[in-house]
Amino acid sequence: MNRWQTPTNLLLEPTILRQLGDCCDEFLIHAADVEGKCEGIDARLVEFLGQHAGIPVTYAGGVHALDDLQTVQDLSGGKVDLTIGSALDLFGGNQVRYADCVAWNRR
Asked: pTM to 2 decimals?
């Protein structure tokens, strides 16, 4: 994607993840369809990434509640990390408090 403005024809498939994984140390995956909407994560994508990414993955997009941290953990088998943008109070959101995220990670 060109800043999420120009779609590509590249399909996200296990083979592609393996090929790209040979060229980098980790993936930052932006779920452009849900990014910035605070309406929920793309659960199917998170699960897919947990099953097929052979390197560390951070997922971004759609977080609307603190519970999404656990959901991503569960769906990915602990293989996908989550970054929170628009929903986080530090960035002007009101759905997720930074202090709650820190507490969740410390437990």
From this structure: 0.89
